[in-house]
Amino acid sequence: MKNNKGLTLIEIVITIAITSIMAIAVLTMFNISITNISESGNKTERVLRIKEEVDEEIINNKEKTTNTDKVKVTIDGIIKDREVDGKIIEIKDSDIKITTFVPNKPKSTK
After folding, report:
1. Would you indicate the residue range of the signal peptide (predicted)?
2. Long-range contacts of 41-45 (CB under 8 A, 24+ apart)
3. Which of the residue ranges 47-51, 55-59, 61-65, 74-78 has the most confident prediction, judged by mean pLDDT?
4. How many secondary structure helices (H) and strands (E) does the chain include?
5. pLDDT per residue over 35-52, tens digit each?
6. 90, 97 in Cβ contact below 8 A?
7. What would the DSSP string read from start to end of 45-58?
8. Looking at residue 95, what DSSP letter applies?
């Protein structure tokens, strides 16, 4: 009766192959995750830059009342189709577009 306590060469090769396939899968997922994180960071920086441009545009147009736009506002149960004067501000950068409406100050009713 033989007492075999070791592994055969085929068992070792199969173990290395399975481990390699699992390592490749994990490294691929890791690489994709790093790429997505980097792209998300770049997009966030572009959005923040565009937001700063929108903020500057709002500040620059605060005193100007020329070229006003009208927007209909509806709040269910409270306001129906009220027209509001103001300025539509739109800033674009490749695949990002930010649009906002800045209402004019209401005229006093005294």
Report:
1. none
2. 43/96
3. 47-51
4. 1, 3
5. 999 999 999 999 999 999
6. yes
7. HHHHHHHHHHHHHH
8. T
Amino acid at 18: I
Global pTM exceeds 0.90: no
Question: Quick one: tokens of 18?
Answer: 């399975």
- Tokens encoding 75: 């709040």
For residue 70, which of 79, 83, 82, 80 has the smallest C-alpha distance? 83
Is the CA virtual torsion 95, 38, 47, 56 positive or negative? negative
CA dihedral over 33, 37, 40, 42, signed as positive or negative = negative
Q: Which of 56, 107, 64, 106 is nearest to 87 (CA)?
A: 64
> Residue 59 is encoded by which pair of tokens?
């500040």
Is it the case that residue 106 has pLDDT exceeding 80?
Answer: no
Tokens of 90: 């739109």
Q: Are 91 and 98 in contact (CB under 8 A)?
A: yes
